[in-house]
Amino acid sequence: MTALPDRIRVVEVGPRDGLQNEAVHVPTDRKVRLVEALGDVGLSAIEMTAFVHPRWIPQMADASEVATTVRRRPGVRYSALVPNVKGYAAAAAADVPVVAVFMSATETHSRRNLNKGIDEAIEALREVTLAAQADGREVRAYLSVVFGCPYEGEVAPTATLAIAKRLASMGIGELSLGDTTGMANPTQVRRLVSALREEVSGLSLAGHFHDTRGTALANTYAAMLEGLEVFDASVGGLGGCPYAPGASGNLSTNDLVAMLEGMGIATGVDRDGLLEVTRWICQDVLGVSIPSREATAELARRAKAARVAAERA
Amino acid sequence: MTALPDRIRVVEVGPRDGLQNEAVHVPTDRKVRLVEALGDVGLSAIEMTAFVHPRWIPQMADASEVATTVRRRPGVRYSALVPNVKGYAAAAAADVPVVAVFMSATETHSRRNLNKGIDEAIEALREVTLAAQADGREVRAYLSVVFGCPYEGEVAPTATLAIAKRLASMGIGELSLGDTTGMANPTQVRRLVSALREEVSGLSLAGHFHDTRGTALANTYAAMLEGLEVFDASVGGLGGCPYAPGASGNLSTNDLVAMLEGMGIATGVDRDGLLEVTRWICQDVLGVSIPSREATAELARRAKAARVAAERA
Q1: Residue B291: closest CA among B248, B259, B241, B255
Q2: How far apart, in whole angstroms, are the C-alpha atoms of residue A140 and residue A174?
Q3: Residue A103's beta-bridge partner residues?
Q4: What is the ipTM for the molecules in this complex?
Q5: Which residues of chain B neighbour A304 with C-beta distances below 8 Å?
């Protein structure tokens, strides 16, 4: 059997990717508390916010305040999403150590989402990267629709390989492979990851899987079998499917951590603490039902155990 | 990379395992129509009903009528669950070709669920098996809580190995490995399946995974890497988590078939037809929201595409 990693780095994207599509406005102090609580339960990489124009994502209008107010824990990699040099200037002013940039693997998705073709998107991303590097900041890139595109269907690995080589040559540290609409399967994941590891050097790879069709953990396992050791996930599974309100989106940190810890792979995350943060942000702050299967099952199991204990008392 | 099978046999358990816990009484003609529709969309193994005492499972009180009314398609393996020789006599009278028996992998789960210890359960199961074999019927066995037990925690592979050897020596054809409360992980699955394949011969193995914690497809993929070619699933994901009302239970046939077909593994199932059966049984007949992630996402995707088309018209 292929050797699995001993330890996985979970990149918590909930405060940014999870909250950005939420209809409920979340007050700044709650966002700060969420980031701090996620660090307290052991997440060692946390995306705090996005420095985007509030017209695009009103929920992220308080990016600077969030990033500067969070009490930062030593050893945690804090990042923020940045779309352009203007956003980068704000992120730098807030002293964000890791800058996350983003683009799409297909021309159509790129034009529909960023209003730019791939070449133009890479140029914008290069500007941010150069500025960040000049300031000694790390850069992480999100690549969307790497496995399947809602407009172009299945995406060939060659498309991603070509983009990955261009990003690697810029000195980008980490590339997060996004299955944006949950269309990937384990065979596809292994094929792409092994090609990337063979043909593109000097680039740390991360898996960013969506559970839209229930495949997020299968794809995670497949990626681990090809050596991936970094996975993005969102507390409680916040961050819905982009084209289907009510359908699932981001892999939940809860499901990911539970599976990994069950397999004897360390994540550093305290599961009880994570469950409490999940319950608080979903139920108390947002008033939504928890998308995570593991968290839902665990809360139901505990409620039942409490009922049984009360009946016996 | 380990070779994957070209073809998977999906055992559709929805009409039995999916409906048995539903509060809504389903009229007999709808159950018959469900079994027939599942055959029509290409499922080649279908569990029709359970010949159990109606005091246990009121929903299955019409087992004989369902089994005798279904218009059977050539080439489809129809089964029914049978707890004892009395149930077997009724199943035989209804000419059910495959008899499904069941027991637990742990002593506590066995006593709590069947009111019998493991040894006593095996004896009851042997009686049914001998009767079925004398009549030339195939026997399939479900073994519950193979990976984790809500009472005993993680279950050692040795427990399952010992039971599997006893079942194999009886001439049981297929053993379905049940992750009844969704506690398994891919490492555990590979360890158990490889041990069973090595130490127990003459027994076809099936995976019966629950998506309670989002791991069902990861476990399916892990099992395929160890050579498993038969998986149980329930249309729409019907059949909730036994200890958590509202939480997920059975892996949905929809999620399973979508992943497999995406990987180039044939299932024989028409996905559009399956989606329509899923919508009908969940929404029209039961009035429940669809547990399957893939079916939910696909229906949402289609609804959105229809809205966009209508706006353009």
Answers
A1: B248
A2: 5
A3: A143
A4: 0.96
A5: 243-244
The residues with which A46 forms a beta bridge, in sequence order, are A12, A78
> What residue ranges do the domains of chain B occupy?
9-312
In angstroms, the CA B271 to CA B236 distance is 12
* CATH T-level fold of B9-312: TIM Barrel (3.20.20)
What CA–CA distances, in Å, run from B277 to B76, B260, B303? 18, 19, 17
CA torsion through residues A258, B213, A41, A101, sign: positive
Partner residues linked to A80 by β-bridges: A49, A99
Find the DSSP H helices in chain A. 28-40, 63-69, 85-93, 107-114, 118-134, 157-169, 186-199, 216-225, 253-262, 271-279, 293-312
Q: Give the pLDDT confidence of B14-45 residue by residue, as tens digits.
A: 999 999 988 889 999 999 999 999 999 999 99
Residues 184-243 of A with CB under 8 A from B: 185-188, 190, 194, 211-218, 220-222, 241, 243
Q: What is the pLDDT of residues B255-307, one digit of tens each?
A: 999 999 999 999 999 999 999 999 999 999 999 999 999 999 999 989 988 99
Enumerate the β-bridge partners of residue A143: A103, A177
Just list the catalytic residues of B.
241
Longest pairwise C-alpha distance within chain B: 68
Instruction: Say whether B187 and A243 touch across the interface (CB within 8 A).
Output: no
Q: What percent of chain A has a predicted confidence (pLDDT) above 90?
A: 88
Look at residue A252 and give its three-state secondary structure.
Answer: strand
The Cα–Cα gap between A20 and A9 comes to: 23
Write the CA distances from A77 to A41, A44, A83, integer angstroms. Answer: 14, 6, 19
- Cβ atoms within 10 Å of A5's Cβ, excluding its own: 14
Query: With left for phi above 0 and alpha for psi between -120 and 50, is residue A108 left, alpha or beta?
Result: alpha
Judge whether residue A1 has pLDDT over 60. Answer: no
Are B237 and B210 in contact by the 8 Å Cβ rule? The answer is: no
Residues in a beta bridge with A102: A142
Cα-based angle B63, B66, B72 (whole degrees, multiple of 5):
130
